Amino acid sequence: MSQEQRRRPDDQPIRYGDVFPVAGELAGQAIAPGDAAMMHDAENKALGVTPKGGPASVMESAAMCNKQRGLIGHTTSSAPPRPTRACPSPRPRSLAAPANAL
C-alpha cells in the first residue's frame, strides 16, 4: 500500500501548521527565514548544537523553500505572537524567615 504525498501549490508558502502540531493564528503564518534563524540560535544556546531533524532544521528547510519560490523575503520574520492573557508577576519572597517561625 502506498500513500500519496499531498502536493502544495507553488503559490502557497509552507506554514507552521503544515509542519508542527499548532493551531490558531500561528498555524496560518508562513515560516520565515528570520524565525528559522531565531530558532537556530535558541537551540544552540539551549543544547549547544542544532540537531538534524530538529525544529530549527525543519524551519530552515521550510523557510528556504518559501524564499526560493519567491513567497517570502530573506529578512522576513513573523510578528511575535500576541499573548492571550497577561501572566501575573510572581510575588517576591522574603529570604528571611518570619520572626514567629521558630
Question: How would you sum up this structure, described in words?
Answer:
It is a single chain. This protein is mainly alpha-helical and 102 residues long. It has one domain (9-80). 32% of the residues lie in helices and 0% in strands. The protein is built from three helices and no strands. The chain has helices at 16-19, 33-47, 55-68. The longest helix is centred in the middle third of the chain and has 15 residues, at 33-47. The radius of gyration is 21 Å and the shape is globular. The mean pLDDT is 79.
**Quick one: how many beta strands?**
0
Number of helices: 3
Q: Structurally, how many domains make up the residues?
A: 1
Spans where pLDDT lies below 50 across 5 or more residues = none
Spatial shape: globular
Mean pLDDT, nearest integer?
A: 79
End-to-end separation: 73 Å
Q: Helical percent range? A: 25-40%
Secondary structure class reads mainly alpha
Largest beta-sheet details = none
Keywords: Repeat
InterPro entries: LEA_SMP, LEA_SMP_dom
Pfam family, one: SMP
Family: Belongs to the LEA type SMP family.
Notable features of this structure?
globular; 32% helix; 102 residues; mainly alpha
In short:
By secondary structure, this protein is mainly α. Helix content is 32%, strand content 0%. It has one domain (9-80).
Write the layout of secondary structure elements.
Elements: H1 16-19, H2 33-47, H3 55-68
Helix pairs in contact: 2-3
